[in-house]
Each structure stands twice: as structure tokens, then as C-alpha cells.
UniProtKB/TrEMBL annotation:
Keywords: Kinase, Leucine-rich repeat, Receptor, Repeat, Transferase
Species for this entry: Ananas comosus (Pineapple)
TM region positions: none
Protein name: Putative leucine-rich repeat receptor-like protein kinase
Pfam families for this protein: LRR_1, LRR_8
Alphabetized InterPro entries for the sequence: Leu-rich_rpt, LRR_dom_sf, RLP_Defense
Gene Ontology molecular function: any one: kinase activity
Length: 265
């Protein structure tokens, strides 16, 4: 952090030999320049005071692997051109005021490893094309306005380590592929330690999970926890009724946890 302030000069990021830019953790304001070096591989403008739109010219950066625009005041849709950046490995647009829906073209980012879009005003259903992101191991969509059936589009992503989908409007039942007596999908997620299903509109019966998975079901009043899922009133292993800060009665299923993986819905 250098405490830089003011606006980014319009031609600062345009040098044809520029490959890596890190102006994060400053007090830079104004708009993101539209004139960008075609050779950019990493653009980090996180934690500034930038406002306005994400420029469509980012879509021309064919070598871009790392784009971090999080924790600013950006207010726009995510430009469709961005999904042309097929070499992206890390995309962090979190904590802005972005709106609109995720398009089918998100499936173009097949090298993407980390997608962080949390704390925006994004809406719509998660496109099924997301299952084409076979390199994705960290996904955070929490604190948005996404809705629809849960996890249909990310069901086949076998190397996921962290998934955060809480505080949206997902509904329907939990897919049997997440649990059941023979959890085929979970058997591929060898480090799974925690599944958080908090504050959505999920219904149906909670599938049976491996004893090593910690399951939390806060804020899903129509979700049924089977009696045989765990022993109640046993520290570290059970189903509990507790009261949160707003005096609502909530139910939490707890079983022993391994810390390697966090799966939040």
C-alpha cells in the first residue's frame, strides 16, 4: 500500500511492453482506463475507490491470466467481452455493485481456477455451462441475488475445494449426488470437511453424509434432517436446536470436521 490517490492516468496502462500491474491497496478513484496494453497478463486494482464500469477493452487482453478488481465501487454489468479472456486463471470482482446475470459464455474460461463474485447484486440462475470450468477449485457467489435449483451447474466440477453460495435465493431439494447412502460425487472430493447450507430456501430431506463431514443447515426451515444422521447432544457429533441473535430457532447438524475443505451453500 502506497497511499496513492487521484485517478489513474488514461495512458498509464497502455504501454505495449506492460505485462504486470499491481496498484492494489491504494486510494485511486475515477474510472478504470479503457486503453490497456494488449500484453497484460496480470491486472490488480483491488481495494481502491474506483467507480464506473468495467471497460469492454479488457476482452481484448488475450494473455490476461489474473484480473482483480475487488473491493471498489464499480457499478455495471460484467461486460460480455470479458468472457473472451480464455486464459484467465483468477477472476475476482467481489465487493462491488455489479448487477446482471452470468452468461453461458462463462464456459469459455476453461483455465479458470478461482472465481470470486461475492457481495454484489448479481442475479439469475447459475448457467449450466459453469460445469465446463474443469480447473475451478474455488468458487464464491455468496451475498448476491442468484436463484433457482442448487448446484445443477457445478455438479461435475471434481476438484472444487471451496464453494460459497450462502445468502442467495436458491431453492429446491439438495441433489442426491451431494449425499445419499452412496455419495458418488463426494467420493471424488477427498478433502471435503464442511458443508454449509445457510440462508437459502432449500427443502426435502438432508442426505446422509460421511461421518467426517460437518453439515450446517441454518435458515432453511423446510429442510428435514433425518433422525439417523447423527446423535444429538454429543459434542462435535449431532443435530442441535440453537437460537441465533434474532431469537429464531435454527437447527444445525454437526459431525467431526476436517479443515482441508469448506463447502458453503
Amino acid at each position: 500500500m502506497n497511499n496513492l490517490s487521484g485517478e489513474i492516468p488514461s495512458d498509464l496502462l497502455a504501454s505495449p511492453n506492460l505485462e504486470y500491474v499491481d496498484l492494489s491497496h491504494n486510494r485511486l478513484g475515477g474510472a478504470i482506463p479503457t486503453n490497456l496494453s494488449i500484453g497484460l497478463q496480470s491486472l490488480r486494482l483491488s481495494e481502491n475507490l474506483l467507480s464506473g464500469i468495467i471497460p469492454t477493452s479488457i476482452g481484448k487482453l488475450s494473455q490476461l491470466a489474473n484480473l482483480e478488481l475487488d473491493n471498489n465501487n464499480l457499478y455495471s454489468e460484467i461486460p460480455s467481452q470479458l468472457w473472451n479472456c480464455s486464459n484467465l486463471e483468477l477472476l475476482d470482482l467481489s465487493s462491488n455493485a455489479l448487477y446482471g446475470e452470468l452468461p453461458k459464455d462463462i464456459g469459455n474460461l476453461q483455465k479458470l481456477e478461482v472465481l470470486a463474485l461475492q457481495t454484489n447484486n448479481l442475479s439469475g440462475e447459475i448457467p449450466v455451462e459453469m460445469h465446463e470450468l474443469e480447473s475451478l477449485y474455488r468458487l464464491n457467489l455468496q451475498h448476491n441475488k442468484f436463484y433457482g435449483s442448487i448446484l445443477d451447474s457445478i455438479n461435475g466440477l471434481q476438484i472444487l475445494i471451496e464453494v460459497h453460495l450462502g445468502s442467495n435465493y436458491f431453492n429446491g431439494s439438495i441433489p442426491s449426488s451431494l449425499g445419499g447412502n452412496v455419495p458418488d460425487s463426494l467420493s471424488l472430493l477427498h478433502n471435503l470437511g464442511e458443508l454449509v447450507l445457510s440462508y437459502n430456501n432449500l427443502s426435502g430431506v438432508l442426505p446422509l453424509f460421511s461421518p467426517r463431514v460437518n453439515v450446517v443447515t441454518v435458515g432453511n426451515k423446510n429442510l428435514i434432517i433425518p433422525n439417523g444422521s447423527a446423535e444429538s447432544n454429543s459434542p462435535g457429533n449431532g443435530v442441535y436446536d440453537i437460537t441465533d441473535s434474532s431469537k429464531r430457532k435454527i437447527q444445525v447438524a454437526l459431525v467431526p470436521i476436517r479443515p482441508e475443505m469448506v463447502f458453503m451453500i
